[in-house]
């Protein structure tokens, strides 16, 4: 069988908030351009599937490859991270551990904020990109669909995703907790990516603030978002002057390097800056200015609300849902493992049947009732192959031995048993 398409070769390589801070995660982050380049290289060196997930919490590669060190090399080649740093901060998960991990990530149980409902959208997007790059497989597609199903059920059947379950909401929660009369403060939001859009929506919905200004490098995108939420828009060139009179600056851009630094700030007020970007898009030197404070994504992710303890109570229910769906996935995987062998045996039996019908047709001058013969023989073949399939299912550690026996008994050639 082709091992590159089975879970024995499936692995996850990555870095996450568990072992790294935001600056370190930033070194390993991948934007869309770098992700495409990495995918191209992976295809050239023989990866049968590859999916890239790069968020503020983690950068991970999910792939079927012969050697997981290939993925470590690719991750370090297309980011600012090194193999030495990866050895210190990264992780490699293989086979069942890797499958378990993807379920935990996709359902928000492994997120920096419990129940993060934004990660599943990222997984869907990442799989779509993998498909464009022709780096998907039946295994990866089935795995992703199973994780999406688990995420949907957990969201619908539990309350684990209520409250501050995203960085965008946590940032707004922080403002509401830390800034008196936040509804009357001037807020500048810089960046209209997914986090920026979600933050804008949460600001409008929860703060009732009428002084929100949206700025993006591309004004058209800012106007599109602003039109939906009815906030003001300014051009990118207006950023310094808008910051000068702002009380709060929220940065949610996707730049590879800091877009806001000390030289940009000429503030008249005390200024609170929230940096929601990984890699960090606000230089740390801004805090050298009197009255300027900076809060990063790791600090915001620690924010809890009064629903956290209640949400934790739903973890066992979420795990039960994952276990149920993962069991279906495991059964599918098991069936897929022995299906080629069963198909090869069935093909061999069909050839025996055809040979016998041909032999008796030539021997007997009378017309054979081929329809009746087909019906009976096909039922016999179906029963035999069903028994073989049941045997392989229960073979456990003797699976390879059973396959070898079937190869000998039915004289299956390599193409028949490995196709």
Write up what this structure looks like:
The chain is of the alpha/beta class and 419 residues long. It has 17 helices and 10 strands. α6 (119-132) runs antiparallel to α7 (138-157) and α7 (138-157) packs antiparallel against α14 (315-363). The radius of gyration is 28 Å and the shape is elongated. It starts with 9 loop residues before the first strand and ends with a helix.
Helix content: 40-55%
β-strand percent reads: 5-15%
* Domain count: 3
CATH homologous superfamily identity of the largest domain = Glutamyl-tRNA reductase, N-terminal domain
Mean of residue pLDDT values: 87
- Enumerate the spans where pLDDT stays under 50 for 5 or more consecutive residues: 1-8, 414-419
Strand arrangement, major sheet: 7-6-5-8-9-10
The CATH topology assignment of the largest domain is Beta Polymerase, domain 2
Q: Over the alpha carbons, how many angstroms does the gyration radius reach? A: 28 Å
Global structural class = alpha/beta
Q: What is the chain-wise order of helices and strands?
A: EHHEEHHEHHHHEHEHEHEEEHHHHHH
Main CATH class of the largest domain: Alpha Beta
Main β-sheet description = 6 strands, parallel
Number of helices: 17
Q: Report, as a whole number of angstroms, the end-to-end distance.
A: 7 Å
């Amino acid at each position: 069988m082709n091992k590159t398409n089975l879970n024995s070769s499936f692995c996850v390589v990555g870095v996450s908030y568990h072992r790294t801070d935001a600056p370190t995660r930033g070194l390993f982050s991948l934007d869309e351009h770098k992700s495409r380049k990495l995918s191209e290289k992976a295809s050239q060196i023989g990866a049968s599937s590859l999916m890239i997930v790069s968020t503020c919490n983690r950068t991970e590669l999910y792939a079927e490859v012969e050697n997981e060190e290939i993925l470590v090399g690719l991750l370090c080649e297309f980011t600012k991270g090194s193999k030495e740093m990866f050895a210190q901060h990264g992780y490699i998960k293989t086979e069942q551990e890797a499958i378990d991990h993807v379920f935990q990530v996709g359902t928000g149980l492994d997120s920096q904020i419990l129940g993060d409902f934004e990660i599943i959208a990222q997984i869907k997007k990442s799989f779509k990109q993998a498909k464009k790059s022709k780096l998907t497989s039946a295994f990866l597609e089935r795995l992703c669909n199973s994780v999406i199903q688990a995420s949907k059920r957990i969201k619908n059947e539990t309350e684990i995703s209520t409250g501050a379950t995203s960085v965008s909401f946590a940032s707004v929660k922080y403002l509401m907790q830390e800034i008196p009369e936040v509804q009357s403060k001037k807020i500048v939001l810089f960046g209209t990516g997914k986090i920026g859009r979600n933050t804008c929506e949460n600001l409008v919905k929860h703060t009732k603030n009428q002084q929100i200004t949206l700025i993006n490098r591309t004004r058209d995108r800012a106007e599109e978002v602003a039109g939906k939420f009815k906030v003001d828009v300014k051009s990118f060139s207006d950023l310094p002057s808008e910051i000068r009179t702002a009380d709060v600056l929220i940065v949610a851009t996707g730049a590879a390097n800091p877009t806001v630094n000390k030289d940009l700030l000429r503030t008249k007020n005390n200024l609170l800056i929230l940096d929601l970007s990984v890699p960090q898009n606000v230089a740390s030197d801004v805090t050298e200015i009197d009255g300027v404070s900076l809060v990063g994504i790791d600090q915001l992710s620690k924010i809890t609300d009064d629903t956290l303890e209640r949400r934790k109570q739903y973890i066992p229910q979420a795990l039960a849902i994952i276990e149920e769906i993962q069991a279906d996935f495991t059964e599918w995987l098991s069936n897929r493992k022995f299906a080629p062998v069963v198909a090869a045996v069935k093909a061999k039996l069909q050839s025996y049947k055809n040979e016998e019908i041909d032999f008796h047709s030539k021997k007997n001058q009378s017309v054979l009732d081929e329809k009746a013969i087909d019906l009976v023989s096909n039922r016999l073949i179906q029963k035999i192959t069903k028994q073989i399939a049941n045997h392989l299912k229960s073979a456990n550690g003797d699976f390879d031995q059973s396959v070898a026996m079937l190869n000998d008994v039915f004289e299956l050639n390599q193409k028949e048993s490995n196709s």
